[in-house]
Design brief:
By secondary structure, this protein is α/β, with parallel strands linked by helices. 38% of the residues lie in helices and 16% in strands. A hairpin with a 5-residue loop joins strand 2 and strand 3. Helix 1 packs across helix 3, helix 2 packs antiparallel against helix 3 and helix 5 crosses helix 7. It is globular and about 65 Å long. It binds magnesium ion. The site of magnesium ion has 5 residues, from loops.
């Protein structure tokens, strides 16, 4: 019997203080629904409008089995397409339909796409601090939990350095786009970062895999130099050395340095990642699955990457919802060319709102093996965690050099 989409709606919740958007697709079969991640935490309200005003009326009455055609027809229904708002809206519906298909089949989604290649997904988490000792202490705590991969970021003294506690402070205290706490000098950072890794290799040894995120904050020539300077410390990868606007510099980076290259959390358009993959200019693809349109797009990217020996490292910070983490994990488990999974632990409120979250054990993420994503959403509890107040609704603060010129976030 055909099961159809009855209604598509959004649930906005922030159990960890981060603005999440979950799409719920309700069906004509009583009790059968699907959940999808549509979290674009800097513009969540725009995504909710795109889902509820445009996709809900467009897909109502459609057969829930037709995931690919619903994706393709929704994708062109705006005529002008792509971009993070519309892609996240598509992702919410797409992931919810995969959840429904898994529930109907009685299988976890990773079984629908070929089954497990590995029992669990090794993860990396974030070690940060105000100085080298704080960062290595933080890394040791993660290693004691069984992690074999650690991302390391250190504060440039007095500056709003990406990935460090001082950066987080500026986010919560921000009240003005010209906040003097938000100064960042790319050259100061690029001189300091290799010294962190020299210290880390001395303190932590050679066994642990070390990762680093440049976060598109330096000009191309400086990114090339930094990548060369990091070579002696044998990093697992360096991430986002360049912004999407400057992807044509990747060839130069590739030729100049042996440090493995990870790229992609800001990509939203196939023409950004396709040449980097097909020309073998990167080692790891780390797009944010909801930002490129959802699970259907991501599984195609994973398969494409297999033929170019590019490994997957899906973006998995706190602004990936637990449903998004479950989608990441389904691909991690079923993708032969899996590389590593970024992970941010769930707080207790998140675990309560989203029963069935993937579990971290022995440095790896484990699925509960239940059908679909294996996840639920307690809507009554979700409503108790509204979006936090913020002067401009969670948008990134401006980061500036001392002279006042803008630096990318
Ligand atoms: Mg990153």
């Amino acid at each position: 019997m055909t099961v159809s989409i009855e209604k598509v709606r959004c649930i906005a919740t922030a159990p960890a203080g981060i603005r999440l958007v979950i799409v719920k697709v309700e069906t004509t079969e009583p009790g059968l629904f699907g959940l999808g991640c549509a979290t674009f935490t800097q513009r969540p309200l725009a995504v909710i409008e795109a889902v509820e005003q445009y996709l809900d009326p467009f897909v109502r009455g459609r057969n829930v089995d037709e995931i690919e055609d619903i994706f393709q027809s929704s994708y062109v229904s705006s005529y002008w397409r792509q971009g993070p708002v519309l892609n996240n809206a598509l992702s919410g519906v797409d992931q919810a339909l995969w959840d429904i298909k898994g529930k109907r089949a009685g299988m976890p989604v990773y079984d629908l796409i070929g089954g497990k290649c590995r029992m669990a997904a090794p993860v990396y988490m974030h070690a940060s601090g105000r100085d080298f000792a704080e960062v290595t202490d933080s890394a040791r705590k993660l290693m004691e939990q069984g992690l074999r991969h650690v991302r390391m970021q250190v504060e440039v003294p007095g500056q709003a350095t990406y990935g460090t506690s001082s950066d987080l402070k500026t986010h919560s205290e921000i009240d003005s786009p010209t906040n003097p706490h938000n100064v960042f000098e790319p050259a100061d950072y690029a001189r300091l970062a290799p010294k962190l890794f020299e210290h880390a290799r001395k303190e932590l040894g050679d066994e642990v895999e070390l990762l680093h995120d440049i976060h598109e904050r330096v000009p191309p020539a400086m990114a090339v130099q930094l990548s060369k300077d990091l070579e002696p410390f044998r990093l697992f990868f360096v991430e986002d050395a360049l912004p999407p606007e400057e992807i044509n510099h990747f060839r130069r980076l590739r030729e100049a340095s042996h440090t493995p290259i990870a790229m992609g959390e800001l990509f939203t358009n196939v023409n950004e990642y396709l040449p980097l993959i097909s020309e073998r200019l990167i080692d790891f693809i780390r797009v944010h699955i909801s930002d490129i349109g959802g699970f259907s797009m991501a599984r195609k990217i994973a398969a494409l990457c297999e033929f170019f020996a590019v490994r997957t490292a899906w973006h998995g910070p706190g602004d990936t919802s637990p449903i998004g983490h479950a989608a990441n994990l389904a691909l991690d488990l079923a993708t032969p060319n899996f590389g590593i999974q970024e992970f941010t632990p769930f707080n207790q409120a998140t675990l309560d709102v989203f029963p069935g979250c993937p579990e971290l054990r022995d440095g790896m993420l484990w699925s509960n093996g239940e059908p679909g994503w294996g996840m639920d959403l307690n809507e009554d509890l979700a409503a108790k965690f509204p979006y936090p107040d913020h002067p401009y609704n969670g948008a990134w603060p401006a980061i500036r050099k001392r002279d006042g010129s803008l630096v990318r976030p």
